[in-house]
Amino acid sequence: MLSEPITPVEDLLKQAEAILIPWIPEEAIQGLDDGYPLMLNYTDRRIKVTGTGFPDCLDVNVSAEELLTVIQTLLDNDWGYLATITGVDLGVEAGEIEVLYHFCHGTAVVTLSVKVPRENPVVPSICGIIPSASFYERELLEMFGVTITNTPNTDHLFLPDNWPDNTYPLRKDFVMHAN
Amino acid sequence: MMLEMTQKEEKFIIPIGPQHPALKEPGHFEFAVDGELVTDATVRLGYVHRGIEKGAEARNWNQNLYLVERICGICSHIHAFTYARGVERLAEVEVPPRAQAIRVLVAELERIHSHMLWFGVAAHEAGFDTLFMFSWRDRETIMDILEGLTGNRVNYSANVLGGVKFDVTDEHRKTILEAVDFMEKRTKHYLNVVTTDAMFLQRTRGIGVANLQQAHRLGILGPTARASGVKRDVRVDAPYSAYKQFPIKMVVETAGDLEARFVVRLKELFESYRLIREILNNMPEGDLQVKRFPRRIKPGEVISRVEAPRGEVFYYIRSNGGEMPERLKVRTPTMMNMASVLAMAVGHQLADMPMLLVGIDPCFSCNDRGVAICNSKGDHDQWTWERLRQHGIDFYAEKV
Amino acid sequence: MKIATMFSDVVGSFWKKPATVQYPFERVEAPTRLRGKLEWDPEKCTGCSLCSKDCPADAIEIITIDKKAKRFVMQYHMDRCTYCAQCIESCRFSCIEMSDEQWELAATSKVPFEVSYGREEDLAEALAKFALADTVETE
Fold it and tell me: Per the domain annotation, does C6 fall within a domain?
């Protein structure tokens, strides 16, 4: 009935790992000596960095400087498509904003996590590699106030034009008025 | 011809929306035109932005189920389904098979009503109102079934965390099967109409072509992408819930024009009919809900992806161990497809714009108050809402 | 390539009765699962307030008269209700039901949307309490 067999999630994640190996911390690889070190006993040893921890996800911490290289590598190897960019405010105490780049391929999801300081959040624009990311970057900019260098369009997408400057609704310290 | 050459520097911009008779939902488009040909297009969204992502952070897990259901009035079940599936994964709760089958059944019934609604709207934009009226009459069959099954025509509230609210009885089974037979007959007729009617084909064939490379570059999703040959359907690529037991066949066309988008959606309906019959004839036995669903959910993150009628819905849910989510991110398919309209618009006739726009089955979900006035001297001036309102009051006061 | 592909449908419609129903002169019976006005049974309620906590629209208030004697009053704000039936799911003692008959709820004033449920003596006591609270506030 089905036209094509589904590639098992393990295989997809193995491919992703092979591509992303330079950015995977050494602690995660140490002590494992088979061909696909990380995939042995897959469910136990998957690299949990941001903590999704589901067997169909691979989460990798990436610095803002390396981001473009990592994404370019993924695309060069034809692995998946950009599903969305999520911003998460980790709170005033943590002082960080986490920017998540979700890539989907079949059942597997690879999430690249970039943590930037809350006071001066800057990430590079990925529109040069993935033009369709422009909407996501505009959303990230207006909702979290993350500066995106070299992004083609910085206009408001969802918020009104008279929205006050330096007010970012999805940050934790933005309080909604009840009713 | 000479005249055109000398005036090329200036752009003539036609604003469309947010209130416009051709578009039933609020979105503001600006099309730069050269004669009848569109040379550039921009979009402004946000007219129905309700801050749902922020609102979700102040509601508990149960309340959010109904909040997300109100993101879209057409694919309401899909949002609740995606959310519930994510939260259940996070809480490590296994949903009983019968509940999963019922969820998929409602999702497929919703797909039929959504595609038929789109079909009617698209026919209306093409000026084919007979087709619009008949397809909407037939769509009522599905609406009645959904009402009888769930208790509501839209916003069915079929889900609870850990299962579904209602069962499918033998009586429902009979009425659904009858309705599906009727709909199948009608869909065959409609497929024949959209592929053979000479007048209609002039509006659709070869219009708004997005080839495979463009589709990949623009990140188009759902049936719009499948009409361009992109083999991407979450139900097939990453089967979830009862799609594991009841697999679905992907419908792909390669032409990439408006006609292909009609064909893909109508052919998908046949798959939905087949799946509904299969589910109803092989309904797993068992409970409808889990006994207890935790009120607090352990810390963690989860990604939940589901194929909505318009394409992939992507949820990212993060819990900090409390009664409310810390972050709920919703990415709807229209967000991505909207960008494709802007790219496809260039080089087309202005009269094709409404058709191009409905071709992606847009679902506007998101106010600007500034109006750009271009006065006779040709210099641009920004007007605030207050100034425009005052201008209106003064204008009519003078007239009286 | 054909023309007038919908012609047979149009002509055929002359011999069919209209698909529309002349409501309110003609009525289609509402399905039994229809979710209408909420109904509450005070006899079974233990006052756990889960219905109120889980209500996405903030439409339910449970007012405690006497916790030990299990005397409660429910204030139901019908104008806020989204008829999602989560309260029915949340209630462990099945005190809540939704009517499939009372669904034509439109009114010209907001008064009929404030519904109070409970035993008569409890309602009277709650009313007296609120009236007292109101006078204190205005003073």
Answer: no
**Measured between alpha carbons, how far is C91 from C100 in angstroms, rounded to an integer?**
19
Q: How many domains does chain C divide into?
A: 1
Cis before B18 (ω within 30): yes
Asked whether the beta carbons of residue B63 and residue C86 sit closer than 8 angstroms, the reply is yes
Evaluate whether residue B86 is within a structural domain. yes
Q: How far is A84 from chain B (nearest CA, A)?
A: 7
A78-114: per-residue pLDDT in tens?
A: 888 899 999 999 988 889 999 999 998 888 888 888 9
pLDDT tens, residue by residue, C111-125: 889 888 988 888 888
The CATH number for C116's domain is: 3.30.70.3270
User: Mean of the per-residue pLDDT values for chain B?
Assistant: 86
User: Does any domain span residue C134?
Assistant: yes
Q: Is residue C29 part of a domain?
A: no
Q: Is A112 helix (H, G, I), strand (E, B) or coil?
A: strand
Residues 6+ apart with CB under 8 A from A27: none
Instruction: Determine whether the interchain pair A135/B338 forms a contact, defined as Cβ–Cβ distance below 8 Å.
Output: yes
Of 3.30.460, 3.90.470, 2.30.30, 3.10.620, the CATH number of A9-119 is 3.30.460
Q: How many helices (H) and strands (E) does chain C have?
A: 4, 5
CB pairs under 8 A between A and B: 109
Containing domain of residue B88, as a range? 52-334
H or E segment to which residue C60 belongs: strand C60-66
Q: Which amino acid is at A92?
A: V
Pairwise CA distance, residues C116 & A106, whole Å: 53
Distance CA C124, CA C82 (A): 28
CB-nearest to A81 from B219, B368, B369 is B219
Domain membership of residue C10 (yes or no) is no
| Domains held by chain B: number | 2
Contacts of C90 in chain B (CB under 8 A): 62
CA dihedral sign of residues A16, A20, A25, A27: positive
What is the torsional sign of CA A7, A8, A13, A14?
negative
Distance CA B79, CA B86 (A): 11
Asked if residues B84 and B372 have their Cβ atoms less than 8 Å apart, the reply is: no
Q: Which domain holds residue C62?
A: 34-138
